[in-house]
TrEMBL record, chain A:
It is found in: Cell membrane. It comes from Alloyangia pacifica. This is Polar amino acid transport system ATP-binding protein. It is a peripheral membrane protein. Belongs to the ABC transporter superfamily.
From TrEMBL, chain B:
Keywords: Amino-acid transport, Cell membrane, Membrane, Transmembrane, Transmembrane helix, Transport. Gene3D superfamilies: MetI-like (1.10.3720.10). It is found in: Cell inner membrane; Cell membrane. GO terms for cellular component: ATP-binding cassette (ABC) transporter complex. Belongs to the binding-protein-dependent transport system permease family. HisMQ subfamily. The lineage of its organism: Bacteria, Pseudomonadati, Pseudomonadota, Alphaproteobacteria, Rhodobacterales. The chain crosses the membrane at residues 20-39, 51-74, 80-100, 184-204. PROSITE patterns: ABC_TM1. Signal peptide: none annotated. Residues 17-205 form the ABC transmembrane type-1 domain. It comes from Alloyangia pacifica. This is Polar amino acid transport system permease protein. The keyword Nucleus does not apply.
Length: 258, 218
């Protein structure tokens, strides 16, 4: 599909300062098509900020994001590099959908309406076609029976699965997950993780910030460990988690397996 | 009590009722319609518009409604703008009401969590669509009660139009009283008229709130 055989997403030298804090201090990594990349790291290490930069919800101060080999977020204007306008980012965002820790469903819409909203309103696709596809997506996340329910009538696990269906409804090339099970009771994490596992096995490209070490170890193709705004270690999760080479990762692994 | 004073002047009172309805209705509709974009501008991304709407809100709320009314009726002709009494009254009252409405609307818009903007942006929605589809439908529940309560004040405040030669309910009543010396009957009728007008407004608020409420939630 893409013009290049290179990575789907490539990040180089990403920097971001929020307030007075240098949250990202030069982040580099690549994501290949069909790959599941897990991002781990202590709270405050910049994982959420990184994900937000990836779909340009916030704009990095420095560095480059290449999507299918082309830089996003900046335009060449008379030989000068200028930040792209918000409306020029919208198309990109539909290709790299995000799922949030706190679900963020639209509370005034039913599950089905939540899923249909963006395809109908943003992509202007025919409502009937979108409805059929949205119903299929709800089926996929095992929520057909909840199509007419409002978010406040659903459990956290159900809401998060609707949020995943909503993200998928954009027919994205990649999905971003920001600690999507962290807000859930332990018995509800499994249903969300199993949906994510299904997606991974279907070849969906995913970047997932996660503290679920089982998921990271068994589902992720690669793991990136963030520490103080930098990639501290990266590689095959089985190797990296079993034999952390830095003291920081050793400490992190100990803290999450306790 | 002698209700003849009411029946004998029914025509005048009815006409005044109509004028009040027209002035208050127009003021309510205009002030709500104008307040929405101003509220959005007030917290919007464009600095110039933020300042403009902040100054507007401040001036309109700091100035007595009657002063604004005098301004549109007596002041504007001085710069070559001549409005008839009723349009001048509507303009003056609208300026005042808009200043308050926009603050209630703004408070409601701000009460929607920023994560809702974020989720909508992540779906590729442009800002106007986010407002229309995501923010306003949620904010409206917060906005309705204080806004309607302000609109009942606007309804009653329409009596100020009597000060610029408009024959609305209160003004007509005062004229009748000074002619007939039967304040009690006349004031009761006028009171009932305001009761009906504001009753309709509050009924409308409940209709809208019912229509907006989600199943199983309050
Ligand atoms: N809007 C903001 N303004 C200032 N500091 C922020 C803002 N958002 C996040 N931060 C800070 O940036 C750091 C990294 O945050 P975040 O990316 O959320 O980390 P993580 O997701 O890894 O926990 C934290 O120390 C946080 O306090
Ligand atoms: Mg985070």
């Amino acid at each position: 599909m893409s013009a290049t055989d290179g990575p789907l997403l490539e990040v180089a030298g990403l920097e971001k300062t929020l307030g007075t804090q240098r949250v990202l201090r030069g982040v580099d990594f690549t994501v290949n098509r069909g790959e599941v990349l897990a991002i781990i790291g202590a709270s405050g290490s910049g994982k959420s900020t990184l994900l937000r930069c990836l779909n340009l919800l916030i704009r990095p101060d420095n560095g480059r994001i290449l999507w299918q080999g082309r830089e996003v977020g900046w335009v060449q204007n008379g030989g000068k590099r200028m930040p792209a306008r918000e409306r020029d980012l919208l198309g990109y965002r539909t290709q790299i959908s995000m799922v949030f820790q706190s679900f963020n469903l639209f509370p005034h819409m039913t599950a089905l309406q939540n899923v249909m909203e963006a395809p109908v309103m943003v992509m202007k696709r025919p409502r009937d076609e979108v409805r059929a596809e949205a119903e299929a997506l709800l089926e996929k996340v095992r929520l057909s029976h909840r199509a007419g329910a409002y978010p406040h009538q659903m459990s956290g696990g159900e809401q998060q699965r609707v949020a995943i269906a909503r993200a998928l409804a954009m027919r994205p090339e990649a999905l971003l997950f920001d600690e999507v099970t962290s807000a859930l009771d332990p018995e509800l994490k499994g249903e969300v993780l199993s949906v994510m596992r299904d997606l991974a096995s279907e070849g969906m490209t995913m970047v997932s910030v996660s503290h679920e070490m089982g998921f990271v170890r068994n589902v992720a193709d690669r793991v990136v460990f963030m520490h103080k705004g930098r990639v501290c270690e990266a590689g095959d999760p089985k190797d990296v988690l079993a034999n952390p080479s830095t003291a920081e990762l050793q400490a992190f692994v100990r803290s999450v397996t306790d | 009590m002698n209700w003849n004073v009411v029946t004998d002047n029914a025509g005048l009172l009815l006409e005044a009722f109509g004028t009040t309805l027209w002035i208050a209705g127009a003021t309510i509709v205009l002030s709500v319609v104008l307040a929405f974009p101003l509220a959005v501008m007030r917290d919007g991304p464009i600095r110039g518009l933020r300042i403009l709407s902040a100054v507007f809100s401040w001036v309109m709320r700091a100035t007595p409604a009657l002063t604004l009314l005098f301004l549109t009726y007596f002041g504007l002709p001085q710069v070559g703008i001549y409005l008839a009494a009723v349009p001048a009254a509507i303009a003056g009252l609208t300026l005042s009401a808009t200043g308050y409405n926009m603050e209630y609307i703004r408070a409601g818009l701000r009460a929607v969590p920023s994560t809702q903007y974020e989720a909508a942006r992540a779906l590729g929605m442009p800002f106007p669509m986010i407002l229309r589809r995501v923010i306003v439908p949620q904010a409206i529940r917060t906005i309705m009660p204080p806004l309607t309560s302000n609109l009942t004040l606007v309804m009653k405040g329409s009596s100020l139009a009597g000060m610029v030669a408009v024959t609305e309910l209160t003004g007509a009543g005062m004229a009748l009283i000074s002619r007939t010396y039967q304040p009690f009957e006349i004031l009761i009728v006028i009171g009932l008229a305001y009761l009906i007008l504001n009753g309709a407004l509050i009924w409308l608020q409940h209709r809208v709130e019912n229509w907006l409420s989600l199943p199983g939630q309050g």
